[in-house]
Amino acid sequence: MTGTTQGQAPTGSAEAIVLLHGLFDSPKGWRDLPRRLAAAGHSVLAPDLPGHGDSAPAATLDEVLTTLAQTVTQAIPAGPLTLIGHSLGAALAVKIATLMPQRIAHLILSAPAGLGPRINPDFTQGMLAAETPQALARALSLLDAGPLSPTALAQELARLKAQRAGHAPLAAALSSHGFQQIDITADLARLTCATTVIFGTADRILDWRCIEHLPATTAIHLIRGAGHLAHHADPDLVLSLVTAQRSTATRA
Fold first, then answer.
1. CB distance 79 to 16 below 8 Å
2. How many CA atoms lie within 13 A of 77 on its CB side?
């Protein structure tokens, strides 16, 4: 699988982890989380979303789900899974969980799309329309991830422009005129696996207050002042959540 990060855990170790990045991002956006999870004994799969990296584009959300579900089942054919997703990747993780509910031990969703009605169109449209480093910098600033060097910004612009044909259909499936086109609330209500949601209270892409639509059994972590990349604001949080769930499963 081109553009994926994988780490194989020893036989009998903890469940495998699948990391699904957000729109316009890549597996590199998880920083050192895959390495840290692998070091903790997990096998780790961090694939490109369709239309990202060298992954073939998908015309519809159903095609995206089919491709990702096949990728997961081929790479990790048996055993329990923890799905970790960010933004669009979080919404896709929920949808994938509905396709294989018996395998999902835990869902960890960072700033998940699909909970509320609104999404900031300045971000999605800005990322798709950026033709200069300055325009891209304005769109990226909404993530509140900090500035990029001129070299890094130029490299990011080149990557995004090369992949724009793959990004556009996913952006359309995610939002239209500032309204989300994906709804995961009913799916979450049906799932019985442990579910954890992380949001930054200064998220400028999605509204953290949409957590009111979550099932009562959902564990919620709010990071004060964090933006849309809430899992970056507290890099130890996701690892601790995986470890805590593993301990709970072992005691059970």
1. yes
2. 1
